[in-house]
Each structure stands twice: as structure tokens, then as C-alpha cells.
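<amino_acid_chain>
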Amino acid sequence: MVERPAPLVAVINTGSTSTKVALFRGHDIVSDETVRHSVDELSAFRRLIDQVPMRESAVLDVLERCDVALTDLDAVSCRGGLLAPLPSGTYRVDDAMLEDLRSGRYGLHASNLSAVIGARIAEQAEVPAFIVDPVVVDELCPEARYSGIPEIERRSIWHALNQKAVARRIARKLGKRYEEADLIVAHLGGGTSIAAHRRGKVIDVNNALDGDGPFAVERSGGLPAADLVRLAREMPPDELLARITGRGGVVAYLGTNDLLDVENRAAAGDETAKDILAAMAYQVACEIGARAAALAGRVDAIALTGSVARCKPVVRGIKRRVQFIAPVHTIPGAIEMVALAEGALRVLAGEARAKRYRSPG
């Protein structure tokens, strides 16, 4: 009897200036390529959605270079975009999801393009297209939703895809299923999200997009409210929003989003760079402490991930302050492409069921 080969899954992850494409044969990576898009190339498109044919062509070119025909594929797994809040899991891409992504009903971001492109390719290949753990995964406990002002509810926008994948790995290291573990995961990158994972659900996490939690490489983090109102009187709203979500944090203090450059400056004796790295570690550690309280002190492990987890001074500073809570594990970078493949493979293997997206509209 001839053994059937493991499923072949194409993975698509669209960023603001790149399209990442990977191929997985089961859990083994066959190819992983990043196609860069120049500012001039992207400026030719008036609307974000207009980029779809160009980016789809880039994906098809990668598959062709890998000598993969669309009929060889068993599934396409895509990064999830800005959608209605939803529970964690793998979702089948359908018309309702595509409508919300195309229209930007819940926000416009390059990640919205992944499922649109994936659906077009999957239709040609006659295979399913999925998204896995988009940034809007919402499992917050009721207490975590209160902001202190009735008109504002705390929202769940975070690095769900990488966080959930890292949490599963840490749970396995502990000899547990993810659904049995109590973990704190800190994704440290351009934005930072620090989440309390209680038995398979994230019951509390800071909003990593809109200015909440510690400052990050490109995010302001939480700000003194009255001072923010005063600043808003002096600065146009669009400029202030840009300072919060893209030009805040390390960028605002040091004029760069290259943390390796900051680390080198600190090592060369730049006292401001040293202070910024120390402050970042301090604020992240304090937020981890808050998540420990959310878990009532029952924490099996703490994980540090994301690009900043490669910065030794920051990692040392965090560990020094939080290792009394639980053992600290470091998984630098992001494993999003692997996580997307694994989400699709769980469905193809019958280990999980693909969920249906439900738009409130």
C-alpha cells in the first residue's frame, strides 16, 4: 500500500511592504520567501484592495519557482486581517469574511489582503482557504473590558497568531496541553502585547495597536490621559494618532526603529539609549506582573517572543524583575508562518474543526 504524502499547504502573509509566501509539506517547510514591494510600486494603487492582483501574481510566481502547480495544493492558509472580534481558532474563508476584509469595515491593514488573495488561489486549486488566529481574537474576561469611561471599552487587538503558537510550544515543554497551562506571553516588536493565557484562553491583554500597555519600538503605549488631552489641543488628530501607533516609543525618543542600532549605541556609551532600553524592560516587566495578578499568581511559565526578544539588555532587564513569578523562556522572532500552516493542518487532520466567521452585520 502506497503511503499518502503529507498535505501540501501554501501560506500567505501580507504586510505593509512585503508578501511572505511559504510552502509546507505537513509540518516540514519546503520553501519560505519574502517578496518586497517598493514604495513606488505601492504608490501606484489608490486603494489598498487594488493591490490584490499585483500581490497575487507575486504569490503565483513563488509557487511556480517552487515547481508547484495549484492542483498540488491541499489548502491555503492566510494571515487574518481586521475583522469582527472572534474566538481563537482556524476559520474557513467565506463570502462574509471577504466582504468585511475588502470593505475595511473593521479597519484597513495590509493583512486584510491575505485572505482575499488566498481565496482566489484556493478557488483555482479547488481547495479550502483558511485564516488562523487573527489579531482580533477576543477571549477577554468581563472584568478586563472596563476602561473607567463607559463610552470606551477595552478592545482585544494583539499578536494572537504568534502568541498562541508560542504558548502551545511552551505548554509542550512543560508536558502539558495548552488548554491545561497558565502562561504569560509577551510579544515584543514594533508593537507589544502581553497576555494572560488561562487554560487555552487569553483572559487579559493590552491593545497592541491603539496605545495601551508598555511603550514599544513604534508605539507610545499607555499615556497619562489628561496630558494626552492637552497635547491634542496643540496637534492635529492624524498627527497625534501617528505618534501613538507608528512614531511613538523608541522611534519618538531616538529617531530609529532599529533596536540593534539602539543596542549598539547603548554598548558604545550612549546614556539615552541605555535609559530607553532599561525603561522598556521596566514597563514590560510591570505589565507581566499585572498579568500574573490576572492569573491570581498561578503562572506555569513566562515566554518572551518577537523581534525585541533578541535584544539582550531588554531581555536581561525583564528577567531580573519577573523570574520570581515563574520560569522565563525566550523564543525570539515570530513563528507566524509555521503557526498558519499548523492551524490548517489541524483541520485537515481532523484534530480541529474549521470555524465559521460571523459578522455582526
